[in-house]
Each structure stands twice: as structure tokens, then as C-alpha cells.
Specification:
The chain is mostly helical. It contains eleven helices and no strands.
Length: about 300
Amino acid sequence: MATTKSESHAIAKKSGIELFSPTYFAACAIGGAIACGPTHTAVTPLDLVKCRRQVDPHIYTSNLSAWRSIFAKEGLRGVFFGWAPTAVGYSCQGAGKYGFYEVFKYYYGEKLFPNANKTLVYLGASASAEFLADMALCPFEAVKVRMQTTLPPYANSLREGWTKVTAKEGLGGLYKGLYPLWGRQIPYTMVKFATFETTVNQIYKMLGAPKESYNALQQTGVSFLGGYIAGIGCAVISHPADVMVSKLNADRQPGESAGKAMSRIYNNIGFRGLWNGLPVRIAMIGTLTAFQWLIYDSFKVSIGLPTTGGH
């Protein structure tokens, strides 16, 4: 048996934050920013090598050789190159992703479609949330990819990169990767949230005891496991679009439409090229997603709110 709604309300009441109130949704947004910004920043070395190998499969013979080469030439700063747009962009995206997910999950599941299948609610809520969150992420992702995939670097800092893009292409230059970003992130987030919610529910069913019978450490442990399982699916389903985002930001010609650019890039790399860097991304996203759910639910527990899922 999972946690009931009345039990969740009782837990939240002790914290002084009413469930589904504006304060609750704001708290979830803060938790999302804390969960996503630092975790994405921590795996910048993986992301750097992944992006460069997506754009040029022959640039390094392996990930280890890549890090050795970068460290020898540029030191630790080079290994974490692109950390600033990553930190800012994914903090903004995390706030939107988790905050709006809780909003849409409540309104879709409780207000608009109370009798709908829960998985459909999770899918719809996560897609809606990611659609909005990516508008905040896109400008920083554009700067990050240009910094990481061009040698010598397009820019050496977030500020320099932002200024160069807007001076040459206007604000639109920061959003030219928005459509493929949606193509990558919306399916990714739908899998991330729906798989997580379903997995957590199944874990508690397998354990055979109500969620509230476990302590906070055990509940967040379930969140970590559910997050890792969800992360593997996320990495696979979103990888072709991730490759295309990297290619578009690095190789889209001035005035070229997104559709024409994607067609040209696909003709150059083929279907197999869409899967460059997948093993690295599975390791990165699986770990990333697990820690994001762990941090997010730990934050919720720390302010007296119930963990996600299992009810």
C-alpha cells in the first residue's frame, strides 16, 4: 500500500507548507534548481568530451585519452570548460522542469482529468513542463555548445559567448537550437518522470509495506534507485536529438532553416552518426538522473514535504 493523499497532506501540514499551494510549487522549483544545476555542472568533463566527439568522432581515440589531452594542455579549467553556462542554464531549467511538473501534474490529474490514467498524467505534465523549461535553458545551451565544440574555443566565458552571439545574430541566435532541444528534452523528460513515478510505485509494491512506514533515508534511497532506472531510458530515447543539437549549434549556416540544416547534417553523418557517444551519455545521464531525484526529494524532506511518487 502506498502513501495516501490524506497522509501526504498531513506530512505537508507539519512543514507549514500546504500541498499544491503557490508556496509548495515555488519550493519544488527551488528544489529542481538545486537538483539540476550542481549535478549537470559536476559532469561537465563528460559532457565536454561527449559534445566534441559528437561533432567530430575522430577528435579523440577514447574518453580517457581526451581528458588526458585536455588536462595536459589546459589543466583542470580545460576539463571543466563550459561549466558556467551549464550551471546557470540547468539551474533555470531545473526550476522550470520540476516546478511546472508539480503544477501540471496537480491540475491535469486533480482538476482537469481526475479519472485519467496516471501514466498519461505524468507524461502530459512532464511534456508541458519541459516545453516551458527549455525556453530558459536554450540560450545557455547554445553558448555552452559553441564554447565546447569549437577549437580554438568560440568564447572563453559565458559572458563573452553571449555577447558574441547576440552581436552577430541577435537574440535569435541564442534560440536557433530550440526546436531540436525540444525534440531532445521533451521525450527525455517524459521518460524521466513517467518511468520514475511508475518505478517508485512498483518498488514500494515489491517491498510490501506503505511508503510512510519507511524513514526518510530509505525513501530517498528508493528515489535514487528509481532515478537511475529512469535515467537509462532517458539517455537512449533522447540521444539522437542530443547529437543533432550539438551539430546544429556548431555547424548551422547563417540564414539556414532548422529543417534544412538537420537534413544536411543527417546526410553527412547518417543514422549511425546519431548514436555517437551513447555509452558515455548512458553513464552520465543514469548517474545524473539518480542524483537529481535524490537531491530533489532530500530537499523536499528537509522542508517537511513528502518524497515524490509512491502515492
